[in-house]
Amino acid sequence: MAMFDDVDKKLSGWFNAGAEKAKGMSETLRLSNAIREEETKQAELYRQMGKYFYDYFAVAAEGKMKEWCDGVKASQQQVQVYKEQIQTLKGTVSCPNCGAEVSSGSAFCNVCGTKIEHKVPKASAGRICPVCGASVPESAAFCTSCGTKIPAVMEEAKSAPAVSTEKKRCTNCGNELEDGQMFCTVCGTKVELEKEQEVVSEQPVLEEAVTEQPVETDNVVAEETKTEESSAEAVCPYCGSALEPGQIFCTNCGQKLGE
Fold first, then answer.
1. How many CB atoms lie within 10 A of CB 222?
2. Most buried one in 86, 172, 185, 234, CB count within 10 A?
3. Separation between Cα atoms, residue 146 and residue 85, nearest integer Å
4. pTM exceeds cut of 0.90
5. Residues 170 and 186: beta-carbon distance below 8 Å
6. pLDDT grade, residue 197 (50/70/90)?
7. For the chain, give me the number of helices (H) and strands (E)?
């Protein structure tokens, strides 16, 4: 019997030791998790302290603090460059009012109706990258901002005719007109009609009778068919521009639709 008592004591000792060890491991794991939580909390507090200092004291920072603040500013500027490059590739710009992405050719935001001001590259001693608009040194073969190869592109740009930046104005009220605009958004004067009248006034008046040309019925039928097809498309009731489904504002004249 004594032998069985010894075996029972040994087994009990092993079980107790295993239980104590498991309890110790569980407690260690709990404490390790608590340490990680506190370290995460510290990192967030450090981040908030740094952002607070940068937002309110970066201008007056000196020494190492100024170096860190300059690094943050440079990183922010680089992020903005990357965002603009993405928009260039997608052919979009950000609305300055609501931040929505609109087509780079739009004159107005189709979400809030704000007029989109397009950036015009300033003339400089160097060259301008035609893709991202960054200033490029004369000796550079590639754009330092987006990596576009410059020589071939610049030769094409030099051979292209200069485009006039002068804004058109309504001859009736003097309101500034956007490219492709058919009606003045202030007085409603038809822009294309004014151009046709100017062309007719410049041509000499011929008093001789003009021989009437026979009207081709096929052309008339084709024009009527095109008119019927175009009437089925959604158009702006103010300027006549084509509209996309769900559009709230006209991107050509800026008028709110559905009023």
1. 11
2. 185
3. 7
4. no
5. yes
6. very low
7. 5, 6
